[in-house]
Write a structure and sequence with these properties.
It is built from ten helices and seven strands. The protein has 279 residues and is of the alpha/beta class. The protein has a seven-stranded parallel sheet with strand order 3-2-1-4-5-6-7, with helices on both faces. β2, α3 and β3 form a beta-alpha-beta unit. α2 crosses α9 and α5 packs parallel to α6. 44% of the residues are buried. The model has no long low-confidence stretch (mean pLDDT 91).
Length: 279
């Protein structure tokens, strides 16, 4: 093979395109979910379904996304995925608009901080239910629509939001996040199991493990653990996460560029886990 042939890439101009794809983003009304939805829409998705617990927040998020002027459309479908039957209702509502789903970004999540001796059992259960069980149920109930969209050469995608708290040690002390850390470790391994099960069905499963991003859910904990400036300076790259970090990674994983990634995870923390694990 000639050197000229070696340097030619197949249709590089569309390598990161999501033109015509249909996506569902759980926890999509704010924070990381909204960042990802913005990237997916701007990369060419024709429909993006935004779901979260609060209807007003979903409506506001869709209005902001549709104001971007992209050809695709953001559609609000509020749902509380922690409640029985809500995932099934979400799927039924999505099916009113489409007969396939190319991308499921399973991002809905919750946390709880409390000292070890005072950590409520019901809070631990609530976090595990939303952060782990709802991810499994969403993957299971959306699987028929994902199978309808996926092919061997163009698989559907499930991308799950985990956390570096599931890789290293999470927050300890007076604001300890035992349930959150355990749930994020669990969901990383759930993604590996889903990858092995669903890969032959033309559905790829990956996960992302973000560090600190200035989002509403993380802001309180960030202030309790030193504040944004101190946390940024402690990172090897001397900054916290920005929206483009999430959007770019999710678009990569969902596009042709990421079509050989299955069962793995991408750490988005500027090197925080590496720095904290050094001897």
């Amino acid at each position: 093979m000639s050197a000229q042939a070696d340097v030619q890439l197949k249709d590089f101009s569309t390598l990161f395109s999501l033109k015509g794809k249909v996506a569902v983003v759980t926890g999509g009304s704010r924070g990381l979910g909204l960042h990802a939805a913005s990237g997916l829409l701007q990369a060419g998705c024709s429909k993006i379904f935004i779901t979260s617990r609060k209807p007003a927040a979903c409506t506001e998020a869709c209005s902001a996304l549709n104001a971007l002027g992209c050809p695709g459309t953001a559609i609000s479908i509020p749902a509380d995925l922690s409640k029985p039957g809500e995932v099934e209702r979400l799927v039924a509502e999505v099916e009113k608009h489409t007969d396939k789903v190319d991308i499921l970004f399973a991002n809905a999540g919750a946390t709880w901080g409390a000292p070890f001796d005072e950590h409520p059992e019901e809070a631990f259960q609530k976090v595990m239910d939303l952060n782990v069980k709802s991810v499994f149920v969403c993957s299971q109930k959306f699987a028929p629509l994902l199978r309808a969209a996926g092919t061997r050469l163009d698989p559907s995608r499930i991308v799950i939001t985990a956390s570096i708290a599931g890789i290293g040690i999470g927050t300890l002390g007076p604001h300890a996040t035992f349930g959150y850390s355990a749930s994020k470790a669990a969901v990383l391994h759930l993604a590996r199991n889903l990858a092995a099960e669903l890969g032959p069905q033309n559905i790829l499963t990956t996960s992302i493990a973000p560090g600190f991003f200035p989002t509403k859910m993380a802001s309180g904990l960030m202030e309790m653990t030193g504040g944004t400036k101190a946390l940024a300076e402690a990172n090897p790259n001397r900054r916290l996460g920005v929206p483009e970090d999430i959007a770019g990674t999710v678009v990569y994983l969902c596009s042709r560029a990421g079509s050989h990634v299955n069962g793995g995870h991408i750490v988005l923390d500027g090197g925080a886990v590496v720095a904290n694990s050094k001897l």
